Amino acid sequence: MMWFSLHLFLPPSNALLPELSQAASTLTAPLVTIDCTEETALCKKYDINAYPTIRLFRGLEENIRYRGPRAADAIISFMIKQQLPPLTTLDNETINVFKSIDDKVFIAYLPPIEGGADADDTPSPSDLIREIYTSVANENHDRFVFGISFDPDLAAKDGLPVPSIACYKTRSEGNNEALAGVEFSRRKVEEFVQAMSRDVIGEMNRRNMEGYMQPSKLLAYIFYDRPSTRARLRRSLGRLAKKLQDYAMFVTIDANEYPHIAASLDVQLDLLPALAVHNMMTDQVFVYDQEAEIRSKEVGKMLLDILQGKSSPGVQLVEGQETPESKGEQEGSNNGHDEL
């Protein structure tokens, strides 16, 4: 039986440890922390050259590098994917729990398995769909959770035909969606999976950074220092991001992990959360007033002004919001007395 363990390679007093400990408390895999300032030979053996580094070990030698957000929920999601098979067969007793096992869950509803190929060894249409879906699931196992059901009643409960492929978005923005009523091909299945994988507000990291560099759109960076702040801003800005998705992309980015990106955009790290917009067509940067609360209405106005050429690069002051400095000045000017 394969056993899993989660290893954190770090120098002492690393800020990631609380998030990883929280994740480990809900998982069965043990957490092992390794201080690379002392265990230099061990860290060299596994080619650890940046801190912190998270590796998932399968047995004693096989290990997988974790590259996702440094947040407990993201680490838990990563572990769930690794401990599940690439494709899980579902029935009436298991499907509801499976739908909520991760942020996005794919389930294919296919006809019952037939006796085999036709007399001329030609696979049936349902066999071909199953082969395509299985192949896509294997290739994307590290990113998503895939299930399969051969019970038409389960599809009918969700108002879906057979065959169809559904994406259940349990904790992310948007509604559940399905690929149905089309001639299934590998290209269509891959395109559906890729389309569903894009969050309205995604998380930028080293692996996907280049994918966000589209000169035709504004790129709005949301810098955060705590996972709870990231979750709150994704909720509050989600509708705006969807409304403007043809003109702008929104991404969250961990300011603790990527301080150099914040610095390159003139974002002050002592005033977080923060929002900065990069117009890649003109290579201009616009920074949302860091003394003001990040609100959807004001962010929307800022983006529209940029798109219409009404704004100059630099800090974009937010009108109508009281900053700590202005509040202090007003209190001081009144000498503590109410005007009324």
From TrEMBL:
GO terms for cellular component: endoplasmic reticulum lumen. One of its GO terms (biological process) is protein folding. Residues 324-340 have a biased composition (Basic and acidic residues). The keyword tRNA-binding does not apply. It catalyses: Catalyzes the rearrangement of -S-S- bonds in proteins. Residues 313-340 are annotated as: Disordered. Residues 15-80 form the Thioredoxin domain. Residues 1-15 form the signal peptide. GO terms for molecular function: protein disulfide isomerase activity. It is found in: Endoplasmic reticulum lumen. It comes from the Eukaryota. Its EC number is 5.3.4.1. InterPro entries: Thioredoxin-like_sf, Thioredoxin_domain. Keywords: Endoplasmic reticulum, Isomerase, Redox-active center, Signal. Participates in the folding of proteins containing disulfide bonds, may be involved in glycosylation, prolyl hydroxylation and triglyceride transfer. Belongs to the protein disulfide isomerase family. This is Protein disulfide-isomerase.
